[in-house]
Amino acid sequence: MVPKLRDPSLLKTGVCYVNGEWIKAGSGKTFAVTDPSTGKLIGEAPEFDKTDTEAAVDAAAKAFESFRHKTGRERAKLLRRWYDLMVENADDLATLITWENGKPLADARGEAAYAANFLEWFSEEAPRIYGETIPASVPGNRVYTVKEPVGVCGLITPWNFPAAMITRKVGPALAAGCTVVCKAPGETPFTSLALAELGHRAGVPPGVVNVITTLKNTPEVGLVLTSHPTVRKVSFTGSTGVGKLLMRQSSSTLKKLSLELGGNAPFIVFDDADVDAAVAGAIASKFRSSGQTCVCANRIFVQRGIYDAFAERFAEKVRAFKVGNGFERGVTHGPLIHDRAVQKVDEHVRDATAHGGTVLVGGHALAALGPNFFEPTVITGLTPSMRMASEETFGPVAGLFAFDTEEEVVRLANSTDVGLAGYFFSRDIERINRVAEHLEVGMVGVNTGLISDVASPFGGVKQSGFGREGSAYGIEEYQITKMVTTGGMGKPLQS
C-alpha cells in the first residue's frame, strides 16, 4: 500500500527549491528514491550538478544583501511561522520520514516534533543577539563588539534524521541573518523538500533558503559548496572521512566550519548502578533508529560483577522487538537504509563470533522481510581486538564488553580517535563527577541513554569534529564578532 499524505503537494518530486521557485536540474537528469522497506520507487529527485549549485549559491548571495539587515524580531517571526506550519503538518512529515528512511512511524513523529523545536528555539534566540562593551586599555578609547551574520552558508545533511538535521542547521543560520544552500541527502530528499515548501508558505524570502538534491554528482556539488568564494561557512554532519575531505576543500577559501562527524560511543554500567535503569538506557541509546545514529552506544562495557545479570535482562528486552515496515502496527524497528549497511552489520557479527563472541539474540539478516532488514542482535564476550571495538557499527547490534575497574574502563572508553558521546550508569556521586570529567567526549549522558535536546549543545571532540549545534551556542557558529574602537572620547566636558 502506498502511503497517503493529507497534503499531497508536500511531496515534491523532480524539482528542487532555488530562489523561491521549484526548478528541475539544468540537465533534466533525475535519480530514483526508493522505500528501504519495500524497495519500491517513491519518486525521482533532480540530479543537480556544478552549474545548478552555483546558481543556488548566487541566489543565496543576492538574498543575503537584504536578509542580513532584517531585525532579529523580523527573523524570529519568520522562523515562528515556519515552526507553526511544521506542527500543523507533523503527520505528513512523519509519513515522509518513515517512507524514505524506514524508521517506525512513532519514531518519525518524534523526529518531526524534535525538528520543529529547533525552529522554535532559534526563533527565540534571534532577537537576543548581543554584543559587549569592553573597558579599553587606552584612555579616551571606547570599545564594543557586534555580532554579524557570517554570510552564505553551505549545509550538508545526512539521511538518518532527514528533518531534524535540516532545522538544526537552518534555524540558527536564519536567526543569525545568514542565507543557505542546503544539499539534501540523496537517500532521503523528500523530507527536506517538504520543509522547503513549508518555509516558502511561511514567507521565507526568495534565495534565503535553497534546498538542492543530487546523488551521483555529490562530490561535484560538495566541491562547489566548499570551494566557492561566496560561501563563507560550511556545516556538515556525516562520516569522519568525508568531513576531512570537506575540510581540506574548504581550506582553499578558509571557510568557517562546523563538523559533526563519526562516533564510537562507550556505554558504561558500573556495579553500583540500577541495573534495570541501565538496561532501559542501553536499549534507548543502542537501538534508536535501528542503531543508525551517531550517538548510539557502540561499545557497552559492563562491570564483571553484574555482567551476566545485565546481559540476561538486556537480551530479554531485545527479544521483544518487532522488526518490519515502519508503517505496520506494533513494529518497533524498521530496515537499515540500504543493503551496504546490512553488509557492514553482518561483517561485524561474523567477526565477533569468529573471535569468540556469543550471540544471545539475533545475528542474521532478515531476508524474508527484504534486503535491508537485520535482526536486533546482542553479543557477549567482546574483546578490544574485535572490529566492533574500533569501528562504528551503525546498526542494530549490541556488543557487551566486561571490565573490572573504573580506571580500566575509562582507558578503554577513551582508546579511540573519535569522541562524540559517552554514557555511564552509577549511583556513586563521587564516581559520577570523576568519570564525567575523564571521558574524552563532547557529550556525556549520566544515568540516561538519551541526550538529544534542542537546549543542549551537540558536538564532539577529537576526530568527531568541532563546533556545536542547538542550544544558545548553536547560533554562534553562524556569526562573526566585529570589534569597533572609537578614539578621542575621553575629553572633559565643555564649559
UniProtKB/TrEMBL annotation:
<feature type="active site">
    <location>
        <position position="260"/>
    </location>
</feature>
<dbReference type="InterPro" id="IPR015590">
    <property type="entry name" value="Aldehyde_DH_dom"/>
</dbReference>
<protein>
    <recommendedName>
        <fullName>Succinate-semialdehyde dehydrogenase</fullName>
        <ecNumber>1.2.1.16</ecNumber>
    </recommendedName>
</protein>
<comment type="similarity">
    <text>Belongs to the aldehyde dehydrogenase family.</text>
</comment>
<dbReference type="GO" id="GO:0009450">
    <property type="term" value="P:gamma-aminobutyric acid catabolic process"/>
</dbReference>
<comment type="pathway">
    <text>Amino-acid degradation; 4-aminobutanoate degradation.</text>
</comment>
<dbReference type="InterPro" id="IPR029510">
    <property type="entry name" value="Ald_DH_CS_GLU"/>
</dbReference>
<dbReference type="GO" id="GO:0004777">
    <property type="term" value="F:succinate-semialdehyde dehydrogenase (NAD+) activity"/>
</dbReference>
<dbReference type="InterPro" id="IPR016162">
    <property type="entry name" value="Ald_DH_N"/>
</dbReference>
<keyword id="KW-0560">Oxidoreductase</keyword>
<dbReference type="GO" id="GO:0036243">
    <property type="term" value="F:succinate-semialdehyde dehydrogenase (NADP+) activity"/>
</dbReference>
<dbReference type="InterPro" id="IPR016161">
    <property type="entry name" value="Ald_DH/histidinol_DH"/>
</dbReference>
<dbReference type="InterPro" id="IPR050740">
    <property type="entry name" value="Aldehyde_DH_Superfamily"/>
</dbReference>
<dbReference type="Pfam" id="PF00171">
    <property type="entry name" value="Aldedh"/>
</dbReference>
<dbReference type="GO" id="GO:0005737">
    <property type="term" value="C:cytoplasm"/>
</dbReference>
<feature type="domain" description="Aldehyde dehydrogenase">
    <location>
        <begin position="22"/>
        <end position="484"/>
    </location>
</feature>
<dbReference type="InterPro" id="IPR016160">
    <property type="entry name" value="Ald_DH_CS_CYS"/>
</dbReference>
<dbReference type="InterPro" id="IPR010102">
    <property type="entry name" value="Succ_semiAld_DH"/>
</dbReference>
<dbReference type="InterPro" id="IPR016163">
    <property type="entry name" value="Ald_DH_C"/>
</dbReference>
